[in-house]
């Protein structure tokens, strides 16, 4: 007979069961966390495009809100060889899951890393049309993304998917999306995040911005954080275009990180090639769902490095120090007080002129000391490394159209920057920009009504008094007076021409219509700066005395009274376009300062007896 088992006290049994249950729960939690960690850890292994097949299941990472990188599923529809260009394929995928089916392909999602069989396949970069019922997107193969940053590896376009795969992809696309005219794959829009800019200011430059493929979005800025540079695939970063009291930044998703190299977007920003532009962290507040264009609402964080490349298949950057920008100070003065705005702008010939104009217009019009229907007096200085400063001085009166009065100020500064950056002689290094605008109440402008000389004829060397009747806007006409001197060497019997005009007409008459507003063809950056600095101001009444003797314009030089023998010799030069002959020469010039812009032209004949 077996001895009876001694039973354990009930309290002991309960403790053992509780301990066992705790161990089982801990093990389960550990397993779940371990699996989650493995799932969240992006793989550095890649899959080539020739290994991609229709029906493959995969996933991608992006941020919908906050700093949480989220995973969503997708399915491969097919591969489209030679889509971006020769030997540059696209993987066509359909996004799956509640969030992406609700938002569709979101502006700012470009660059989201796509994984197939647990390996990095590429970057989400294209979207199909608008108002589509299914979120169908294109993926730039990872080999092309890395090649865009100069990392060697087999190109995705080297695959041999063949026309059969392309046909299968197109057939699947047509069947699943109802492909018709206008339903086309194009780059996912890049949000251009404006902080400190009013929509009305952005709208004035919408044509230029829309042509560059941006979606203008308002956002904010956040203080730099120590972890800004700790990027992972699925995080967001982008280019800094303007920073300071106002800011403009692009925002894309990070595809991959290789040491200190960052790969973004999966498509170009502006296809600028090799660049040196600041790179900053972007932080998502939320994602706005829209049937037309879903987009991410983004705050811009601290600088984390330099954008070094902007190519067809990726934007690339390098973690570390950011490049220098152009400091800009805008001061607005009026009877209401003074306001100063500071900003820094990227130094790039294709971007700087537009960004300076946009920043100046916004800073001028969106502050409490500015008001419409005022006369604006502009004084600006552009300091260049190794050259004399460029001076801009003009006055702008309000008009009767709906265009804001501050727009001509912004366009005037933009025009000078464009001329400087477009010079054909050397790269421009701008050290700083200072823009000062004084706002004077009322519309102070003047129209030239009539003019007359004290005598109907003159002798060589004689000085004559000239009177000009000018009519202020909605004011009583008044007479302005100046003098002209007939050159001593003018032959008797010659008829001179006296021209009373505004600055633009005098520029045209003295330098020819081909030169426009006195632009000429300078032979270097220094002559161009000198040419800009001596251009006539629009708040002057100009009087010019012209003699019937040819003037030769050779590059930026004016050669009056040139003999016909020299003109004939020069006329046979290999590049005759650089030489222009005017039928008259400007013998003397006088000007009368006015308190606002002057417009109009009158010509008088003056016989010499």
The gist of it:
The protein is α+β, with helices and mostly antiparallel strands. The chain is built from eleven helices and 33 strands. The chain is 21% helix and 41% strand.
Polypeptide structure, described:
The protein has 609 residues and is of the alpha+beta class. The chain has four domains: 139 residues, Beta Barrel (Thrombin, subunit H), CATH 2.40.10.10; 130 residues, Thrombin, subunit H, CATH 2.40.10; 116 residues, no CATH class; 162 residues, no CATH class. Helix content is 21%, strand content 41%. The chain is built from eleven helices and 33 strands. The strands form five sheets. The protein has a six-stranded antiparallel β-barrel. The protein has a six-stranded antiparallel barrel with strand order 11-13-14-17-16-15. The termini are far apart. The N terminus is likely disordered.
Q: Compute the gyration radius: what is it?
A: 34 Å
What is the makeup of the main sheet?
6 strands, antiparallel, barrel
* Gross geometry: elongated
Provide the low-confidence segments as ranges: 1-6, 23-40, 152-182, 513-519
Mean pLDDT: 82
| Relative helix content | 10-25%
- What is the spatial order of strands in the main beta sheet? 1-2-3-6-5-4
Distance between the termini: 156 Å
Structural class: alpha+beta
The number of domains is: 4
Number of strands: 33
Instruction: Indicate the proportion of strand residues.
Output: 35-45%
Number of contiguous helices:
11
